[in-house]
Specification:
- The complex is a heterodimer of chains A (about 200) and B (about 160).
- By secondary structure, chain A is mostly helical.
- Helix content of chain A is about 80%, strand content about 0%.
- Helices cover about 80% and strands about 0% of the residues of chain B.
- Chain B has six helices and no strands.
- The longest helix of chain B has about 45 residues.
- Chain B starts with a helix and ends with a helix.
- The chains are: A mainly alpha (about 200), B mainly alpha (about 160).
- At the A-B interface, helix 1, helix 2, helix 4 and helix 7 of A face helix 1, helix 2, helix 3, helix 4 and helix 5 of B.
């Protein structure tokens, strides 16, 4: 019923009665599961191999990565609060929460860059062995996704400042939010399967 | 009586945030306080995970507990923050299909290449088959119950008129 009303009122009825953009985003996220699934299983495949040189398990700093994980997890809260703010029509709060999410994302990326730098200084590079290669590829791809999310968040922030993000366009914030939460759930899996389980 | 689109819209405008007038299903979404509560649970689960890392316990138990906490965190974010619990079932199906496909394919790959033992695969595969089955049965039962209720509602006024 609700979907029908929206479809009719927006003058763009769809066969599902749902927003095409949101449907597209969910399909995209479903396909992203396959991408990250491939990267995670590649790491798991190589994890037990006998290799020369340093492996990630020997250089992990679990307390440091735990703080990074916590930061990313909390960015999901600020993201969903940004969505709630625009749905209420509170543009001031929307900008505060969007910026907070972007800053938390940047903190996470800065932490990852620092972690990579430490690993390289200790002698583990992407060329050291297959385990290191799969580790850097997986976490690097995730970092690239987070960076993409930060760019989207800052774009939304700019649009809001320009007054180009009215309540009617709340769906734009919802779509970026879906992407951001997805990046967060991927990290939940990576933190457990790639850091904590092999790290001990 | 079925409410008209106009009446639904007017009620939404009067009682809910502005965006609800555009998307009335948003009225089902949680309030900020509930989001904060979910975030607190997520933080506690993360603290437990990190705590487990430093505890001396058998490896299978350690792995099982970590996977349990990760599943809880994953589900909370997907169901509450991504609103999959409240939005259309089509979104849920799209995402779950991708997720199950990914888990199944990569579990098989891990077993074939010897990175995972076959009994683990069988256990997870059974879980992946049973879960959608239970879900399908529950959905079907709910649909039947709804149909029955609407039939009763249709018949009730008629019987009172004749009575």
């Amino acid at each position: 019923m609700a979907a029908d009303i929206r479809a009719v009122e927006h003058g763009a009825p769809t066969s599902t009665g749902l927003s095409n953009s949101k449907l597209g985003m969910w399909a995209f996220l479903g396909s992203e599961c396959l991408l990250f699934g491939a990267l995670i299983s590649t790491f798991l495949l190589y994890r037990g191999k006998d290799v020369t040189g340093l492996t990630p398990q020997k250089v992990y700093d679990i307390p440091y990565t735990s703080v990074s994980s916590f930061v990313l997890l909390m960015s999901s809260l600020t993201m969903v609060l940004a969505l709630a703010a625009i749905q209420r029509g509170d543009h001031g709060k929307l900008r505060v929460w969007l910026m907070a999410t972007a800053l938390l994302g940047m903190t996470f990326i800065a932490g990852q860059v620092y972690e990579f730098t430490v690993f390289v200084h200790e002698g583990m590079t992407i060329k050291t062995n297959v385990i290191a290669s799969s580790f850097f590829t997986l976490t690097g791809f995730h970092g690239a996704h987070v960076t993409g999310g930060i760019i989207m968040l800052l774009s939304l922030f700019g649009m809001s400042l320009d007054g180009r993000l009215p309540v009617e366009k709340a769906e734009a914030v919802e779509l970026v939010g879906l992407y951001w939460h997805f990046v967060d759930i991927v990290w939940i899996v990576i933190f457990t399967v790639v850091y904590l389980i092999p790290g001990r | 009586m079925e409410p008209t689109s106009q009446s639904v819209r007017e009620t939404a405008v009067q009682t809910e945030p502005p965006a609800v007038a555009e998307e009335p299903e948003l009225a089902l979404h949680p309030r900020p306080r509930q989001y904060v509560l979910v975030a607190v649970v997520l933080a506690i689960a993360t603290a437990f995970e990190v705590g487990l890392y430093y505890l001396d316990m058998p490896h299978p138990l350690f792995v099982g507990m970590l996977l349990f906490f990760a599943t809880v965190k994953f589900s909370l974010v997907v169901l509450w923050f991504m609103h999959l619990r409240f939005d259309s079932a089509i979104f849920r199906r799209l995402f779950v299909a991708g997720l199950i496909l990914a888990i199944t394919v990569y579990m098989i790959v891990l077993v074939i290449f010897g990175a995972m033992k076959a009994p683990w695969l069988l256990g997870i595969a059974a879980f992946l088959v049973v879960l959608p089955l239970v879900w399908a049965v529950r959905t079907r039962r709910e649909r039947l119950r709804k149909r029955l209720r609407s039939r009763v509602e249709r018949v009730a006024p008629l019987s009172s008129e004749h009575g």
